[in-house]
Design a protein that fits this description.
- This protein is of the alpha/beta class and 586 residues long.
- The chain has 4 domains: 14-196, Flavodoxin domain (Rossmann fold, 3-Layer(aba) Sandwich), CATH 3.40.50; 224-267 and 373-427, Translation factors (Elongation Factor Tu (Ef-tu), domain 3), CATH 2.40.30.10; 271-365, NADPH-cytochrome p450 Reductase, Chain A, domain 3, CATH 1.20.990.10; 442-585, Nucleotide-binding domain of ferredoxin-NADP reductase (FNR) module (Rossmann fold), CATH 3.40.50.80.
- 36% of the residues lie in helices and 19% in strands.
- The chain is built from 22 helices and 21 strands.
- The strands form 5 sheets. Strands 3, 4, 5, 6, 7 and 8 form a 6-stranded parallel beta sheet that branches.
- Helix 19 (515-521) runs parallel beside helix 21.
- The longest helix has 17 residues, at 180-196.
- The two termini are 50 Å apart.
- Mean pLDDT is 89; it is low at 1-49 and 200-212.
């Protein structure tokens, strides 16, 4: 009989490890060896002796799902019965029967619920939500302190569960972008408490246990050093944008991805900005700063965010500078005014509010956040990319305060990385996938660089020989200079792979035309595709485009389906529940 091995670096302290050792030792009396040599639980009644541990997640990019799967693996190793599900897969009647619940939820945008938690939250926050006195819960929230709504989704769910009578197994943990260690420790502290909660016999039987999560050796903390093999300009000379096609060589990394996933790229700060900051601080590039392992210039180049000022840095600049406008904005807590004032400003712009050499290098780096990867929707299918992974990225460039500024990662890739080694890793997005049924119709809305995952979808369906129809809505400003991948899309149309291609170039006529305009014009056909089981996908700007597309979808369903506004909303919600309306928005 084998007892599951707990590695030395598992997220448990001494007391928790002792508890687990006793718990696992007790499995000797309950485990039997199958004929094929694998371990199995001896009897079904023993499996149902305690209620399952429900681990529910809400995620936009896959991070919360990954944490949930890791928590489930730790729970299984402790002899528990974890059941992992997305929040939107849970209805309130079933939720009310759960005795032990861990919620792992990220926050999307400025304090919003992620897409696959919105329906759950609407039901949970409704007056009709059931009482939950029999539930024991813990909430693990993921977020980014760079946003006002830091971990707001987790805070809302945590508070609402308490209001409905549920009892906490652990205090909520709010994690910043470096969440792995903190999340792992919280799980290790919470599992023994969850194991001690007495289950209820009336609870429904648990679904089949999920397999352990397979992890790549390449991740945010250990990215794969890939060669940037291709850097090609896609947009025309007169375009207001600079959109580029990149290809990274995967070599013998063993790194795998699927159409719909995102690629994390570790950026390198602009050396010119680093030099300008050093000059402003009056610091030497090779200076050693207490607490830093490398010379100052290296840390500012690859260690810290120096383009986007942190909240702590902004507050300290205001305290030292006595800047009347900034002080007024912060004093009144005017979020919109602060965003407007900060627009286009980096850390150097704020440093210039102080006299030269007014801040020490140690004080400066102490107010910075670690440099984070940038995630981009992958624009290739592994079935067609021949050992490479493709990205489609708009280079961000602008001039403000008399100085040229640029996107941290987009200009690094465009200007300085070609032929060099860049750190990459894959972020799975299991919710954003080509339908498993190759006969399913697919509708894709992806203006600008939002076309990226749909190029991958089309390559995937072609390689799989899918028979389902494909409809793409694409647009930008001008057809002559902004129709990226035009030749590829034309070839796909001519070959019959792309059944319909509707284009919306907003500035080629007096009246602006957008993708949602084309959707409304073709509303009858679009509704028919949905009625035939079609999947509806959206990728691109979350603040305006995605909302306008969502409203157009509601309107189309109401008009062409003969539904009231409420019935159209119910129709859209059902599409979401069926995973037939999914978004990759940013």
């Amino acid at each position: 009989m084998k007892v599951p091995y707990i590695p030395a670096d598992a997220p448990f302290n001494g007391d928790q490890r002792a508890w687990l050792s006793g718990f696992l030792a007790g499995l000797h009396s309950r485990l039997a060896m199958d004929d094929d040599g694998s371990n199995a639980v001896a009897t079904a009644p023993q499996q149902q002796a305690s209620s399952p541990l429900h681990i529910l997640y809400g995620t936009q990019t896959g991070n919360a799902e990954g944490v949930a799967m890791d928590a489930a693996a730790a729970a299984r190793a402790a002899g528990m019965q974890p059941v992992v599900e997305a929040l939107d897969d849970i209805d309130m009647a079933r939720f009310a029967t759960m005795k032990r619940v861990i919620v792992v939820v990220s926050t999307y945008g400025e304090g919003e619920m992620p897409d696959n938690a919105q329906l759950f939250w609407e039901a949970l926050s409704a007056d009709s939500a059931p009482r939950l006195e029999a539930m024991n819960f813990g909430v693990l929230a993921l977020g980014d302190t760079g946003y006002d709504g830091f971990c707001q989704a987790g805070k809302l769910i945590d508070t609402r569960l308490e209001q409905l009578g549920a009892q906490r197994m652990a205090n909520r943990l709010d994690c910043d972008v470096d969440y792995e260690d903190a999340a792992s420790a919280w799980v290790g502290e919470t599992l023994p408490v969850a194991a001690a909660v007495e289950g209820g016999a009336a609870e429904p039987a648990a679904p089949t246990a999920l397999p352990a999560r397979e992890k790549s050796q390449w991740n945010r903390k250990s990215p794969y050093p890939s060669t940037l093999a291709v850097n090609r300009l896609l947009s025309g000379a007169r375009s207001a944008k600079e959109i580029r096609h990149f290809e990274f060589d995967l070599g013998n990394s063993g790194l795998t991805y699927e159409a719909g996933d995102a690629l994390g790229v570790m950026p390198v700060n602009n050396p010119a900005l680093v030099s300008a900051i050093l000059e402003r601080l009056g610091a030497d590039a090779e200076a050693a700063v207490s607490g830093l392992a490398r010379p100052l210039s290296q840390e500012l180049t690859t260690g810290f965010e120096i383009s986007t000022p942190s909240r702590e840095f902004i507050a300290e600049i205001e305290r030292r500078a006595g800047h009347e406008e900034l002080s007024h904005i912060l004093r009144h807590g005017d979020k919109e005014a602060l965003e407007s004032w900060l627009w286009g400003k980096d850390s150097l712009d704020l440093l210039q509010l102080l006299p030269e050499r007014a801040m020490s290098a140690a004080d400066f780096v102490g107010l910075l956040k670690p440099l984070q990867h940038r995630a981009y929707s992958i624009s290739s299918s592994p079935l067609a990319a021949d050992g490479r992974v493709h990205l489609t990225i708009a280079s961000v460039r602008y001039t403000t305060n008399g100085r040229e500024h640029g996107g941290v990662c987009s200009t690094y890739l465009a200007d300085r990385a070609e032929g060099d080694i860049a750190g990459i890793f894959v972020s799975q997005n299991k919710a954003f996938r080509v339908p498993s049924d190759d006969a399913t119709p697919v509708i894709m809305v992806g203006p600008g660089t939002g076309i990226a995952p749909f190029r991958a979808f089309l390559q995937e369906r072609r390689a799989r020989g899918a028979t389902g129809r494909n409809w793409l809505f694409f647009g930008d400003q001008h057809r002559a200079d902004d129709f990226i991948y035009e030749e590829e899309l034309a070839a796909m149309s001519n070959a019959g792979l792309l059944t319909r291609l509707d284009l919306a170039f907003s500035r080629d006529q007096q009246e602006k035309i957008y993708v949602q305009t084309r959707m409304r014009e073709n509303g009858k056909a679009l509704y028919a595709w949905l009625e035939e089981g079609g999947h509806f996908y959206v990728c691109g700007d979350a603040t305006r485009m995605a909302r306008d597309v969502d409203q157009a979808l509601h309107d189309i369903i109401a008009v062409h389906g003969g539904h009231s506004a409420d019935a159209a909303s119910a129709y859209v919600n059902e599409l979401k529940r069926q995973k037939r309306y999914v978004r990759d928005v940013y």
